[in-house]
Write a structure and sequence with these properties.
Layout lengths: L5 E5 L5 H13 L2 E4 L19 H7 L19 E7 L7 H8 L7 E7 L6 H10 L4 E2 L3 E2 L5 H8 L2
Parallel strand pairs: 1-2, 1-3, 3-4, 4-5, 4-6
């Protein structure tokens, strides 16, 4: 993919995914875009033990699309998009779907990466491929700051 323009877009609820995304972007010289919710998530919103919490409701209702505060100025300029997020209930958070649905991603290569305290990235890969079958998905990875740079260099080589 040498010569292509790459964007690292990420959603981070606690700062962990943000640190990983910054490492990924730095390692490959990519532009960086934070997917920011219009209504920020509070600690109560993120309480996965509470079935009434915002994140729990979003997980249980596939039609919910949390609003994103801003958009990528020129998505058409990018050939490759690395999309980072924390794993929630085995897949991507609904706000990632909101973000992806804003754009025509045909002809682009998308590569997911995730952070998690215990889940793998496979559920998110399957969820994304099922929801967006017209997108050219490449295999993703579960990352930390210690393995992000090496993975990123190999992912876009």
């Amino acid at each position: 993919m040498t010569g292509s323009k790459t964007l690292v877009a990420y959603f981070s609820a606690s700062g962990v995914t943000k640190r990983v995304a910054e490492e990924v972007a730095r390692a490959i010289g990519a532009d960086l875009f934070e997917i920011v919710p219009t209504e920020p998530y509070t600690a109560a919103d993120l309480n996965w033990n509470d079935p009434g919490s915002r994140s729990s409701r979003e997980d249980h209702d596939a039609s919910i699309r949390p609003a994103v505060a801003s958009a990528v100025r020129d998505m058409g300029a990018y050939d490759t998009l690395l999309v980072g997020f924390p794993i929630w209930w085995g897949h991507e958070p609904a706000i990632v779907d909101t973000f992806l649905e804003q754009y025509d991603l045909s002809g682009k290569t998308l590569i997911p990466f995730a952070t998690s305290g215990g889940s793998g990235v496979g559920g998110a890969e399957r969820s994304l491929a099922r929801k967006y079958p017209a997108v050219s998905w490449q295999r993703g990875a579960l990352l930390s700051t210690s393995n992000a740079a090496g993975w990123a260099r190999g992912a876009v080589a």
